């Protein structure tokens, strides 16, 4: 059970964008250089965040990405599911309905209890990530972080 | 983020073994036929459960697998991690320490806050699965289930 490496990228990029002045943007190239990541592949992940409604993209010579919403309204769950999808890790293929022990269809109207327990665990994971916002992260950064972040990021402009 | 298909197999096989008379066993072949699963590959997963201390294997003509512990002491977490390992899904590759924005080593003695939040979510998932036992499942099965399970399973002996 693995999340893609780009999960770390988008969490860090969103945290970085959350430290910019209101309305300021950063390009995929700037963010790629800031973290030494492959630019074209990072750009794809940032576009996924735009599709998820987490980032807004602006075009033009000073164009780039910024948060589409306040940091308090951007959750880890949105960021993670933007790059990994929302499919639960446990997949029930209904093996209870096959083989010599096959249960009859009338006994399988409800979700398999094993799948239900696995879904509950996924739900607590999702709820935890949904309760963690970029604003929570900002509140734990050192007070000097945003100034440093802005200056290092725009050095690539 | 996907669990292997064999996760469903081991949850069902362990639930099946939990319904046998004390001391009774079932072979990999019986379990494979019970659920119409590929025998050799299922046998490998059952061996993984033996290594995890969840099942005991007995040899000989009537040999097979049985629970190594009472059902109340076998958790979903043990079953899931026996086949998928215990590695957390989020991997921190320390991109905070690379690129133009690289933080100095002295600022990176603590785990990255983003990795910490992801680890917390994994912890709540693990705790939920650790709190779910085979005994919980047995208590929710219809009262007729064990008799049916035993007779269908041993039909393959």
From TrEMBL, chains A, B:
InterPro entries: TR_Rrf2-type_CS (IPR030489), Tscrpt_reg_Rrf2 (IPR000944), WH-like_DNA-bd_sf (IPR036388), WH_DNA-bd_sf (IPR036390)
Protein origin, superkingdom: Bacteria
GO molecular function per UniProt: DNA-binding transcription factor activity
Alphabetical list of Pfam families matching this protein: Rrf2
GO cellular component, as recorded: cytosol
NCBIfam families per UniProt: rrf2_super (TIGR00738)
Protein name stated in the entry: BadM/Rrf2 family transcriptional regulator
């Amino acid at each position: 059970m693995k999340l893609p490496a780009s999960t770390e990228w988008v969490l860090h990029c969103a945290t970085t964008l959350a430290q910019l002045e209101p309305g300021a943007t950063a390009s995929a190239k700037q963010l790629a250089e800031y973290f030494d990541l492959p630019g074209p592949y990072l750009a794809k992940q940032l576009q996924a965040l735009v599709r998820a409604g987490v980032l807004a993209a602006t075009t033009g010579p000073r164009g780039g990405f910024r948060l589409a919403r306040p940091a308090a309204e951007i959750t880890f769950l949105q960021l993670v599911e933007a790059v990994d999808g929302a499919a639960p890790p446990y997949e029930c293929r209904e093996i209870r309905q096959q083989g010599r022990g096959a249960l009859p269809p009338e006994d399988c109207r409800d979700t398999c209890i094993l799948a239900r327990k696995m879904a509950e665990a996924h739900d607590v994971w999702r709820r935890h990530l949904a309760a963690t916002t970029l604003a929570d992260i900002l509140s734990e950064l050192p007070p000097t972080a945003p100034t440093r972040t802005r200056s290092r990021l725009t050095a690539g402009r």
